[in-house]
Amino acid sequence: MLIANATGCSSIWGGTAPNTVFCKNDEGNGPAWANSLFEDNAEYGYGMKVGSDVVRATLRGKVEKLVDADIDADLKEALNNWLENFDDGEESKKYGDEIKELLDTEVPSEVSDELEYVKENSDFLTQKSVWIVGGDGWAYDIGYGGLDHVLASRENVNVLVFDTEVYSNTGGQASKATPTGSVAKFAASGKKTKKKDLGLMATNYGYVYVAQVSLGSNDNHYMKVLKEAEAYDGPSLIIAYAPCIAHGIKGGMGRSLIREDEAVKSGYWHLWRFNPELKDEGKNPFVLDSKEPTFDIKGFLKGERRYTTLTNQFPEEADRLFELAQEELKDRYKGYKRLADMEY
User: Fold this and answer.
1) Spatial contact of 100 and 122, defined as CB atoms under 8 Å apart
2) Do the Cβ atoms of 121 and 91 come closer than 8 Å?
């Protein structure tokens, strides 16, 4: 797995030595993680994908020359099996491991350079999974142009957005993911405009797998989305609700998972998937996974300082903006429901 990380909170908890959230498996393998600038992370991850594809395409050409030569039968079989499963992550790893065990086999001199290339680039025998990760300031805002370009490319990359609804790592400025009524820097009297629907915008391409998730609300849904996104042969975009210290959660960050659940139950956040493969089966690609919410949006907002500050300082404006926020979220849910009820 190759991970391209946008500068932000995820680069702090993802790449601060000597500790890391990323680890290796029993075989000693793990993800390769690298951090990019804030504004160009999508392009950075896209470059990882293109670079990996170029190496693997060259590798395939070398293997094809090897199998056409008079080489050991076991090596030829392993190489042929690998070619047949070139784009399959698990199978390419399986047969790639078989090839690695046979790389000391003698081959004719006319293909010795090809075998040497396979030895030097044996790590690329396994199809790479590329994940591009970062916060909403990057994805919704400063890096949106690059993100849109990468999603439109139809390349098989996965994007995971940690939606904290604010520029968390640079001081708590409002972003295009900041909801109506939320207090943030540059929105001291509450943000006056509604939150951008990044996920719904991405579904307009028709060939991008898109989902909204909330781990604390439904971990099975979260894992299902990860598996579907990884299996999908094309770009995927997963937007995860991410409580942040800037939210000022009553009771502290230890209640993060509880707040994720409350966000979904109240209708503040919605769980859904858009899977283009369902359309190929004659099914509706849009699946609304949230249950009917309580729409107690105002009750949910009272649990965080970013909203109660507005009530304390500008009570009349708070009432107006909270009412507007509730109506906007109801409209958003109704829109999702209409999409989910469409017949194909």
Assistant:
1) yes
2) no
Strand intervals (E) in the chain: 2-6, 32-36, 130-135, 158-163, 209-213, 236-241, 272-274, 286-288
For the chain, give the mean pLDDT: 94
Report the C-alpha gap between 127 and 85 in whole angstroms. 9
| CA angle 131–134–136, rounded 5-degree value | 135
Please give the sequence-ordered ranges of beta strands (E in DSSP) within 282-322, or none if there are none.
286-288
Of 272, 274, 237, the closest CA to residue 42 belongs to 237
Q: Is 190 left (phi over 0), alpha (psi -120 to 50) or beta?
A: left
pTM tops 0.90: yes
Task: Count the residues in the chain.
Answer: 344
SS3 88: coil
pLDDT by residue (tens digit) across 292-306? 999 999 999 999 999
Q: Read off the pLDDT of residues 256-313 as tens digits, 9 standing for 90 and up.
A: 999 999 999 999 999 999 999 999 999 999 999 999 999 999 999 999 999 999 999 9
What tokens appear for 81 in the block? 């099996």
Amino acid residing at 133: V
CA angle 8, 309, 298 (to 5 degrees): 95
Tell me how far apart the alpha carbons of residues 98 and 78 are, in angstroms, rounded to a whole number. Answer: 6
> Which phi and psi angles does 268 have, rounded to 5°?
-70, -30
Q: Which amino acid is at 253?
A: M
CATH 3.40.50.970 in the chain, residues?
131-340
* C-alpha to C-alpha distance for 133 and 161, rounded to whole angstroms: 6
Domain 131-340 is in which class? alpha beta
